[in-house]
Amino acid sequence: MDTSRREFLKLGGACALGLALLPAVKGFAAGTGSPQHLASPKALQGKRWGLVIDMKKCWPRYQEGCRRCFDTCRREHNIPVIDNSKEEIKWIWPEPFANAFPDQEHEFIPADVKDNPFIVLCNHCDNPPCVRVCPTKATFKRPDGIVMIDYHRCIGCRYCMAACPYGARSFNFRDPRPYIKETNPAYPTREKGVVEKCTLCVERIDTGLPPACVEACPAGALAFGDLEDPASPVRQLLKTRYTLQRKPELGTHPSVYYIV
After folding, report:
1. pLDDT tens-digit profile of 52-95?
2. Whole-structure pTM value
3. Environment class of residue 247 by beta-carbon count within 10 Å: exposed (0-12), middle (13-18) or buried (19+)?
4. Which residues contact 9 (CB under 8 A, 6 or more apart)?
5. Over 70: is that where the pLDDT of 50 sits?
6. What are the angstrom distances between the C-alpha of 75 and each of 32, 70, 101, 223?
7. What integer pLDDT is reported at residue 39 of this predicted model?
8. Dihedral pair phi/psi, residue 78, rounded to 5°
9. Which residue has the higher pLDDT, 25 or 252?
10. Could you give the 3-state DSSP secondary structure of residue 101?
């Protein structure tokens, strides 16, 4: 990573925040000047990518010890293993129902729902608050709906972490590279002082492959597709099955749905 560039952006971002935070946020929210991305001709084509996670398919495998989606994501993206919950880096991880859906908890929830974990990750919101608050445009939304982070632009201010209502972002309080068990040379590592999160495996989508967690799941519990395409697998599931979104009342319009 170009350290001098990051330092320059960090200084610029701090000045902008100190002088005029609100106008800056509004200006960046306009979406002009977002980082450009070059995709392969093999890239999957979609207007708004999303996931449907069938927890009833997941839970039996989870009880048997299956952690393929978590482990595959960690290997694929060089996610460090740090045994400190305050410094843990999380892209996809399990949460109890009470944490995943705090607004829908009540005393009569069936035990198989209340006592089982839910797979959670970045919701790639259609109205992402993290994008609006980023002072350097390091966080941006692609035309296909994937919310990304440009690590070279991230100044580590953590405004995006404060804005995300799902806790889907992690900050590298230390250099994560010594904590990577086996480095994948095909994916960049990060450094101390930047925020990171799930990218919906954009590097795979842009080469014609589905997200690694979807491909790795032995139960077929994760379905991936274009939410704007009525014929896509996700739309077919949404048409025929009752689903939940996390904290829909916030108006973020998550692109991840759950079958319970």
Report:
1. 999 999 999 999 999 999 999 999 999 999 999 999 999 999 99
2. 0.84
3. middle
4. 136, 153, 155
5. yes
6. 34, 9, 28, 21
7. 64
8. 55, 50
9. 252
10. coil
